[in-house]
Amino acid sequence: MININVMTKKHDAMNPPLKIEIDLNLLVVFDAVMAELNVTRAAEKLSTTQPAVSKALNRLRRAFKDDLFIKVPSGVKPTPKAIAIWTPIRNGLADIRQVTQPTLFDPATSTLTFTIALNDYMASLFALPLVQQLSQEAPGINLRFVPSMNIDAPALLEQSEIDLAMGALFASKPRLQSQTLFTDHYVCAMRKQHPLTKRKLTLDQFVRADHLLITLTGEATGFIDRILREKGLQRRIMLTVNQFSLAPAILANSDLIAAINYRSVQHSHFAKALHLTELPLDHDPIHVRMMWHDRKQRDTAHEWLRSLIVELCTHL
């Protein structure tokens, strides 16, 4: 049992000490349900049964005088009270585990599997150096790369379907952490013999050209189109593809042009066949990030993987 004693400012017969008793195991269950947002998955994680987890939640509801979790189609949704108390409970449990179960992660002997969501552009940058590093430091560790459209990364992390997401990710949610790995910028790419290479590209020429758009979602619009609409302009997107690796080859063998991130061209086999120039409009840089869930924040294996990725990024 955890005995929590909170003394009032004046300890007397009218103001007795406040004493709360909560079974530590109940807080472990609470942490698991908050992490998974699903009673069944939490039970599997704790190697127990769903009725046992439900029973523990009922005891917690009585102790905290709050529903804590509300049923939703995907599992459960935490109440504001549950969200408010999770961080101190989670941190407290992590400290207790560190003291009572000081297990150390050894990459040299580990056989863990990490699942990372990323697009083909990110995979082309990271796959080889990451595999080479793992072969030296952690030969037993496995990697699973799964496709990501950036917008779906938070949901995949929330549902514990991936360990990390990497890319030009959208703003992080409260339960998610992120770190910028590097920045990139957009350029306008076209074949070296393209008619538009003869002089500095103007906005009018850019708009009147036929464009290729890389769109992971399949939508035939991008940030360039939003900027152009603000100027009352519209371009023709002749072709859309959902893979960065396809774009350089198409551009090198057609009269299409594209606003594309510099690194995806720089690392392409067709880099020498392409002419790169500045975009004729202002735009923000690309912040490439990795994102993970709070539940992995203090996981030593996860911390090691994140540190390895950050180190690799310094050499890209």
From TrEMBL:
CDD domains: PBP2_Nitroaromatics_like (cd08417). Residues 22-79 form the HTH lysR-type domain. InterPro entries: LysR-type_TF, LysR_HTH_N, LysR_subst-bd, WH-like_DNA-bd_sf, WH_DNA-bd_sf, YidZ_PBP2. GO terms for molecular function: DNA binding; DNA-binding transcription factor activity. Pfam families: HTH_1 (PF00126), LysR_substrate (PF03466). Keywords: DNA-binding, Transcription, Transcription regulation. PANTHER family: HTH-TYPE TRANSCRIPTIONAL REGULATOR LEUO-RELATED, TRANSCRIPTIONAL REGULATORY PROTEIN. Belongs to the LysR transcriptional regulatory family. This is Nodulation protein D 2. It comes from Acaryochloris thomasi RCC1774.
